[in-house]
Amino acid sequence: MANRVNGKLLVIGFGPGHFDHMSGRARQAIGESDVIVGYNTYVDLIRGLLTDQEIVRTGMTEEVSRAQEAVRLAEEGKKVAVISSGDAGVYGMAGLVYEVLIEKGWHPDTGVEVEVIPGISAIQSCASLLGSPVMHDACTISLSDHLTPWETIARRIEAAAVADFVIALYNPKSGRRTRQIVETQRILLEHRAADTPVGLIKSAYREREHVVLTTLERMLEHDIGMLTTVIIGNSSTFVHHGLMITPRGYQRKYTLDSTIQDLKPHQRLKPEAEPWALEGSLSGKNGQDPTGSISAAKVEVEKPNLPALAMEALSILEAKGKVQTTALADASSETASVVSIFEVAVSSGLAEKKWTPAQMKLLAELAGEKGEIEYTPHHQILLRVPTDSPQEIIDCLTGEGLLLNPVGDTVQIKACDFCHGDKGESIPFAEELNRRIGGLTVPKELKIGFNGCAMACYGAVTEEIGIVFRRGSFDLFLGGKNIGRNAHAAQRVAEGLTPEALVEAVEQVVREYAEKGNPNERFNKYFKRVGVVAGFRHADAPKPTIPELACGE
Ligand code: SF4
What we know:
- The protein is α/β, with parallel strands linked by helices.
- Helices cover 27% and strands 22% of the residues.
- The chain has helices at residues 24-32, 40-45, 63-75, 94-103, 122-130, 150-162, 179-189, 307-319, 325-331, 357-367, 390-399, 427-437, 499-516, 523-530; strands spanning 8-13, 35-39, 54-58, 79-84, 113-117, 131-132, 138-142, 166-170, 197-202, 210-215, 228-232, 238-240, 243-245, 296-300, 338-347, 372-375, 381-386, 403-405, 411-415, 446-451, 465-470, 473-478, 491-497, 532-533, 536-537.
- Strand 16 and strand 17 form a beta hairpin.
- The radius of gyration is 33 Å and the shape is elongated.
- The termini are far apart.
- The relative contact order is 0.06.
- Residues 262-293 are annotated as: Disordered.
- It comes from Desmospora profundinema.
- Keywords: 4Fe-4S, Cobalamin biosynthesis, Iron, Iron-sulfur, Metal-binding, Methyltransferase, S-adenosyl-L-methionine, Transferase.
- InterPro entries: 4pyrrol_Mease, 4pyrrol_Methylase_sf, 4pyrrole_Mease_sub1, 4pyrrole_Mease_sub2, Cbl_synth_CobJ/CibH_dom, NO2/SO3_Rdtase_4Fe4S_dom, NO2/SO3_Rdtase_4Fe4S_sf, NO2/SO3_Rdtase_FeS/sirohaem_BS.
């Protein structure tokens, strides 16, 4: 093997700029170098670490000559530090140094030794100043089209937006490149909500550090320049007291405001606890399709695949003349072990709480011997029937004047009986709301309490969304929690809404929740997390005060 060339290239990322954020190895490497090669500003940033090193400094756009000079000096036998801010391998000098070496026929075993020393890149340093916006899948995109065709950059922006990545934009704007950030915002707004949180960080951890928290829609109203990094949140990112936070997904399995978890440690990695995973079922809870429409649930039952059992069944049925052999052969196959269970929530009407004998009788007949009838606390009955013809069941039930709702994580209007119709002025608006959003799929089942007078005797104000009709207009309540030891009433967010405004507002609230809520996240938690829904701002429920009791009380 040929002798290695003696020199060494130390390609150093020194992080955001402050010495405290530089790695020990980076500082050591600068100290042991004979020559420092860098962009003027970077050399100034590390000047406090320099002793007697030779300095090769150049201006912007001269990075190729810097890399060539660094390689030349290393090939002369010198230890050469090539410095980049951030990480040398993220839009830094590492790639260019390797490319220059390779052009010269460099081989790692025989050419100058190369050591790339990692640093904290802007996506990390800027994220730390914002809170935790990069807690989920993220990407970096440089908007500089000096070396990359804009068409390529635009395609990447669009792909990242569609894929819901958190995006860190590097080099967003310069004196001459001003349109790129405008075009980027336009592309992003086609795929992300206007109120998506955006962080603008200038000179992170340097003297003129400046942090702005804004939204995708308003980001261009702020100063963005060469030293700014732009961090765009994903569809789950939220702002809490000036911090930008992207959830990792813990809400899917854990209750973060409780020390008692529904899933025990040994259950947490089981496929049934992760229905969203590749191995899990993608068909949704209870077989309900993602649109929330009523459908038959496919329930796997024990598979009688044993050949002996099949043959026994065959002979019994053949003996009874019940089946043809060919039909039974089908019955013994894999498909025969799947039974369709149709499940639906049935009520006598939105406002009507009385059942007729005919309705009760129909329910009993449809359930038959093999079906199930279950009464729920929500003024409705769950009917489960084994059938492959759910439409027939639907037709029978609706024909008898019954109201059907899909089961599972959907919206249901839970109305009072309007004093048996005596106070029925607001019923049309409950029905309109039901037409618009009843049955809509949401991250977690959502009951909307709708009460026909200020008495609110059906408990609308304790539901996650509560509506109370009062003197011709509506009061709207959001974020109630009516179960658990930390149950609390909902927050009154609006009073005196006109019927039209009420219907619009509730629809918007629910659609925002449907779109942006995390899987399994209840509405009250979602409202607390995002802080503002459809313009209604969340306020924490007052903490309970526990009076000091005299001993013995
Ligand atoms: S909330 Fe009012 S209208 Fe509805 S049942 Fe109770 S008292 Fe009657």
